[in-house]
Model the fold of this input.
Amino acid sequence: MKQWTAFWNILLKDMRSYYLKPPNISWGIIFPLAWTAMFLIRSGGRLEDVFTLLPGVVAVSILFGTTSMLAVTITFEKRSRSFERLLLAPISLQMLMMAKTSGAIIFGALNALVPVLMAAFLVNLSQVSWGLFLPAVLLIAVASTFQGLFIAVAVTEVFEAQTFSNFFRFPMIFLCGLFFPIATLPAFLRPLSYVLPLTYGADLLHGAVHGGHTMPFALDLAMLGLFCLALFVLSLRNIKRKWILQD
Amino acid sequence: MTSESPIIEVSNLAKSFGEVTAVDSLTFTVRQGEFFGFLGPNGAGKTTTINMLTGLARPDAGAIRICGLDALANPKAVQRLIGVVPDESNLYPELTGFENLCFCAALYGLPKAERSARARDLLRNFGLAEAANRKVAGYSKGMKRRLTVAAGVIHNPRILFLDEPTTGIDVAGARQLRHLISDLHRAGTTIFLTTHYIEEAEQLCQRVAFIVGGRIVCSDSVERLLQPAQAKHILQIAWANAAPDLPRALSESFPGLTFSAPRQGLIRVEADEPIRVGPLVRFLEDRGAEVSEARKIQPSLEDVFVRLTGIEVEAMRKEKEKAGPPQ
Done:
């Protein structure tokens, strides 16, 4: 019970201190809006393109929202030594990091709702398989957050967190089949697509929104789950090695 | 209040960072209810030791038992019993003083009503009641230190680790903080204090360990460490305009006394018997020295530290100046 009290209060503090600040709320709205507008303009404003654009915009909104926030907030707390206070608390490292990442996961999932709401004004979304769409959003948010955690542990400065995040994020936009099918990529780049978690998330979203998926849903879900687990375990190991054990 | 039973037991603790040995075979115990000082210059290994005791760093070798628990095997169980006040504030500047304390209490699983009551009590006791609803970003350095100490004891720990608590704050703030720490000790909390302000340790601690270069050079009660030094009689004479070989001339003329010159224009005289001031002053004035002051010095823990470690007082002072204003 005591662990859950700590978990809830860490989550609540992070939501208040970071995620629910006006600049972040506006970022969460403007960013998906800009992406949607950009692709709609590019496609000549054809509403039928909304279905093919929506998975990409949703995935990018989650990816940028979660990785930016988590990598920066953890690096900032590490620099200001307030993260040390959390490490000194009698809660397990797993629970602590779950609490720290939950805020980013919720923020990412809420970011995904913005393009969905915008799309709902433009087209009829009754064909969307929500039973698949919502778990896909959640899993992409978890995987992206854990990527942000992995980055936060690897760097020491806030600006490094941003740079390192972009190093991963921008290639992912083009390699994960968000806006261009993986099959259209040069052959030498294709294997790279399949070692990125977002590829499986994007495939799920495409399947849920317009049925255009290339892999079995079970495989997508399993791969995303595996990536989540691997990134979390790897990040915890790095935290223990770099921040606690100080070897 | 102090019991004979050990609450912290450290044996053969060692830690290196690459080629640098930070802590080398440390062995010591702290008794329940004791005010224990861990003294040494900057870089002596004090913070590394605290980090290992509190679960923030893993030792390369050695064992730590805290409240009877193996601290290396059960760091989280130990963290429930200890409070830590680091050398710099680790509070959240965007939260108010009250919110910071409530948050810290929540980390230890305290129920909501208890968190608020405890936070209000501490804010009042630490003289921060009026600033309770102000953001910590706007606090003075002294206020931040007091709030950091309050955050360290929010869960009523059995042991409080204080890492250089008065470094960098003004004289009045440091004095106030020392009173608060003494009150916590009187209330039964075991205190583990690291500092390079030796006079602070002399004022507060019951027992101290001197650490230099990662090794403990001496550990004993303040009283016992001072005893041999206090048996000595010490006189300090300030003078100007005299020949540079004056200390040598003094040694030849007063064979029963020991002379040293801690700095230019200052002579320190030590003897086992009471020292007669008149003949010394006359001797100096006959040789053209202008004596401005001659006073008896009460040997301090700093003298004991200098004698045992060989670290010059001046070097310690320079470190203090670098670290912050004198306390």
